[in-house]
Amino acid sequence: MQVVEKNNFEKNKSSVKNNAVQFLFKYGAIALLVFIIFYFSTISDAFFTYDNFTDILRSISIVTLLALGVTFTLVVGGFDLSVGSTMSFSTVVSASLMVWYDMPLWLVLILPLLIGVLVGLFNSFLIVIIGIPDLLATLSVMYIVAGLHRTYTEGYSIYNNMPLTSGSTAPGQLSDAFLWIGQGQLMGLPVPVWIMLVMVTASYIVLHHTRWGRILYMTGGNAEAATLSGVNVKKVKFTAYVVSGIFASMAGILFTARVGSGQIDAGAPLMMEAVAAVFVGYSVLGAGKPNALGTFFGAAVIGILLNGLTIQNLPYYAFDIIKGSVLVAALAVTYIYAKKKLNRT
Amino acid sequence: MAEPLLSMSAIGKKFGTVTALQNAEFHLKKGEVHAILGVNGAGKSTLIKILSGVYQQDNGTIYLDGSLVQLATPKSAKEKGIYCVYQEVDTAIVSDLTVAENILLDTFANKGKLFISRQKLNDKARMILHELQVEHINVQQKAMHLTLAEKQMVLIARALVHSAKIIIFDEPTAPLSIHESEKLYAVISKLKRKGVGCVFISHRLPEVFEISDRITVMREGAWVETYATVAADQSQVIEAMLGEALSHELEPSTHFQGAPFLQVENLSDGDKLKNLSLTVSSGEVVGVVGLVGAGKTELAKALFGATPLTSGTIKLEGKVTKIKHPADAIKAGMALIPEERRKEGLFVQESLEINATFPNLKKFSKGLFINRKAEKRYANEIIERLRVKTSSTDTALLHLSGGNQQKVAIGKWISLDSALYLFDEPTKGVDIGAKVDIFKLIRQLTEKGKGCLYFSSEIHEAIGISDRILIMHNGQIVKELSRQEATQERILLYASGGKEQF
Asked: What ipTM was reported for this prediction?
């Protein structure tokens, strides 16, 4: 009798724990966001204003693009660590095309995207054809591409009419049309925010409402079963890494237009932030898998947190502690939930 | 003859509500080779695991050398001189250690000596290998370089270090070549002369008759009969293994059989499959029967384009068809219901809806966009037609029972209206009710003129459903029987590599 009671008691205790995990998994990220907004609003008047929120959205637009690319690779069961370097490369290439070579705008937009495609193809070649595990392959490519972009610029950032090593000055400037992409306004919102919103929506529709999206998710969920259902898994993975490369180079172009110069190593610090955004996104509304809206949401959580802390005058060099902690918390909730789910079956 | 070395009497074991053993008996004499036979699920492995201390019996007694023993852990079984040579030798071998270290692993793993004399270790290992007459194995090489057969010898040697009283061989010859097997027989007879009791488990009847002294047959977790090998014959033993013919046979089919749909000639995959030829007509169920490891799954996957072929042609409706990827097979009108449905057939984390429409997504989309309503409609249709028991079309499949999962694995092909279905062990882990549903479904398919290849190691089920039966052994088709000719005894004989004597 006593044993039975004890058992029941333990069962209740564990089910309370289970429910808590389930709740955290479903609504944890949203609760956290609401809490952060509420907290900062009570502390600072400058925080909860339209201007500040468009600021936040603009600040997360570049990371969100990067993170969308990572989302696609995670959906097919891969991973892309090279997005940061790819973004840096595309940043300096787009700037150099204008400043060094005085190229027309359409080329300045297309060529960096081509670089993204090439990096994606190289990644998938290593992963799909050669068979190197995704993390290791993209880690190596991250270094290769980072080295390439530093070599290309000889270590200098690129700005209007910069002095060249030959002694003369660069012939070109970043055009106003180009800068508008990063600095302009459209219907009350900054252009980068529009670009981000369009890309998030497009990714969401592709991933959740089209045949392609279904095939991407199933490939990631069970490549073996997908193959036996007639899916060419290799082709699907190729596509995902190419998409990731394209997103990374879009982020690079946007960065150049936003800052007005081609900074080297622009993407390096954003890579981990993008990965964090995707994993925070796992736990949004209990999706349990990478998803476009979750990624946007994850980027927003991190962006708002950093914005609020900036207002609080937290030194910027401490920001990585916050980013890392948010990532760890998101991962913890996701993986504890996954373990529970496995145990139940 | 001598006192029984080991007596296991009235052994019972339950796992949850499933009875694995009931009144199992096993008696072993000193210096004898005693084989245990039984079909899959007869309880052989459970009995062996109880003897080697992996499981504990719920009831029954074990006497060793005349005294009652409790074998609580594998360690205590070993201390009492009971050793086991498993089929998967790699799990018991440490591949980074040398042969000598592997042989004497237990001695230095358990005793707290800090330094090990390599010299002594190697000498001792050499001595034992010499005793087994396999002194060609270099004791100083790493175990990872050994062949499977040599690894087995190392395991046997490890048992001998401790002067084992009983050595259990669990399907030891399954991965071995004939030559290697013969070598193993020689070692076993040597052990026998040393007075070691050998328990021998195998699916290969001829070798059982060659090397055993006695045979115990088990069926459904219980002891059936123990024979002296010299006095027994194969058909008698097979009958004892199968018991009464299991009676859920279906009516013989009377439907029309059309032209050959699939013709396969001389198919090989350079590994397991050797020169297979077969045909399937529309409206026909062809059973492909063989023991575990005969190459049935390999054949199914090769036909479906999931594994590459080295030679052979596949003709569909008379035309030579190149099938390089499952996508080609699906386009050509084939469907595969794979053996490992959770791993290969289904997305178990996903809903029935998503699973059921996946191979034919185009049909459920408008342009690029998925039509969720059409998906749901089809999912409901599958649930009704195949009688899937589930709470909703959104439930993740991992919450469904094995039988219901299997129905979904079949149902996902139905929207494609495929012409040829490959069923690989479709009744594995499926309860009897779902089994009957699946058989009915196969019949419905053939009545509509579809062809089916039914791969199975459940002989009586294959006889019940098939119009013709092909028997596989060791990657080849060794015999074809019509439904009228097929009996369980004959099939089992050919499947175990035997031949009928006329």
From this structure: 0.75
